[in-house]
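Human: Can I borrow your eye for a moment on a structure tokenisation matter? Separate attempts, laid side by side, tell us more than any discussion would. Could you pick a protein and write out its sequence and tokenised fold? No explanation is needed for now; the record alone will do.

Assistant:
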Amino acid sequence: MLPDLELAVRLQELDNRVTELTREVSALPKHIAEIEKKLETNTRKLEADRAALSANQKDRKKTEGDIQLQEQKIGKLRDQMLEAKTNEQYRAFQHEIEFCEKEIRRAEDHILELMSESEPLDRNVKAAELALNKDRAQVDAEKQQAMARTAETRKLLDQLHQERAQVAARLNANVYRQYERIRKGRRGIAIAEAIDGRCSACHMAMRLQFFQDLKRGDQVMTCESCNRILYYNPPTPIEDLTGESATVQG
């Protein structure tokens, strides 16, 4: 194989690897966003449980305040009863006190209901906090792994770019320009191997004479169908299990 073809094949290998790793690095923000989505379910549940518990506590506090107001009102009514001058006034104060006491009993019953409701709500909040903390630890670990892997990938990319620059510098300038032009027009694939008389990229069969010329390997040739630079690996002799020599298409 021509040295320029060998260099072009290596350049394609490097470009393929660079494309793959660049895609991996570019996917990091999306990957991290997907990881963080794991927190959303437990975060929403915790927020809902906290809101329910907070509403319960506010209602209980308000009801306790209502009881205090009723008790204060009863104290004033009893003071006023002492100053009642008629039985009608006395009974009116007494009815108001009974009404206040009834409101206090109703409020106390409501507080008992709130207390019974608050216990499972409090358990839910604690369970959701534990689940969320566990998820956060897992997500943080996954993010650290992803970022560490990306740092390694960037380091490898730097090495690949350095090697690519060295290979490109050794490649014939005309061949390199041809390679770059084809690569840009063929979605990054400028080189294809000829296998069994076909282009491995577009799978089109080659003319017999064209294939024979390609097999000589004394010039840079492009596929007559897709225009990619072609290279040919001659069959490699190997030993089969019987010890007899055989050839395999490279």
Q: What stands out?
A: The chain has two domains: 3-170, 173-248. Residues 87-170 form the longest helix (84 residues). Helices lie at 3-26, 28-81, 87-170, 173-185, 208-216.
